[in-house]
Amino acid sequence: MIIIKSFKNLKEIKNRDEYVKICEINYGNTFLDVIGINEHIERILPTEIINLNLENKFTDIRGLTQSGKVVLIEGHAGKLSRHHLERYYGYHRDSYCRFSKEIISIIACFSAEVNLKKAMVEQNICYFPIVVELKKIDGNKYLNRLREKFNNQVELDHKDCGILVHLPLFKLDVSPEEYIREICENIKEFKNIPEDERYVIIPAMYLNIAHYIEDEFEQEKLLEAINVLKYCENELDRQLRLAREDEARKVTERVTEKVTDEVTERVTEDVARNLLRTNQDEKYVHEITGLAMDKIKELKASL
Predict the structure, then answer these.
(1) Can you count the helices (H) and strands (E) in the chain?
(2) CATH of region 36-135, choose from 3.40.1350, 1.25.40, 3.30.1370, 3.40.1390
């Protein structure tokens, strides 16, 4: 499981395309399965590309498949223009030059209308991207399956979790806002999402809440419901939090032990006093209470 965003960084995200990074860096294979591409990403490749002009370029997701191909997944908001296509072709070309492997380029479009679907050829590099119009993917069958698992308290597997974060991008019978509210309620009420999956699902839900829910008060309630401050953290932040929690637990245990010891000591001394008041022998009181003889003599003198 790859944790890629801290809560601080999430709050600064303005570009909706970032949602693709949240989804695909952990659930890219779920996306490939949904759109019917028979490939399996076995590891994520570095996304920073430096071309011959020493310019830094970034592709959203780049992964190496089991068959030895390289998959590029680009999230795109708005109209897909020739300018965008040329930029994505640059990612395709640089990846081909770096890895010398077959490249599968996918453009995942948030817009409901995409008219530009053209190929580009340069020497021996053919660029013919797969343009996926996300709002034309019927997500209702997946939503019904998730609802059934939540209702029956069946643990979600990795693919289910991948579907959960992708569904707001697909065509649904409910609005994205209704879906977000429903999933947040399920996250709050049920425990059938594995803990490690929550570190990806909840950052994605944070972005959905910020994008789809307009009322700030409702945003705060939904964020509180999914425990956003715990799960929207990078691994370093998480380790620091766990260390702090562990130290706090140890301090609590030490304080509890100290209080327990003090209470036990007071009770024992009270028992000793009561025995001494009945003129019991000091040695007998020692055997019964375990108190030191000096302490027993001190207690007897104070009566």
Answers:
(1) 12, 9
(2) 3.40.1350
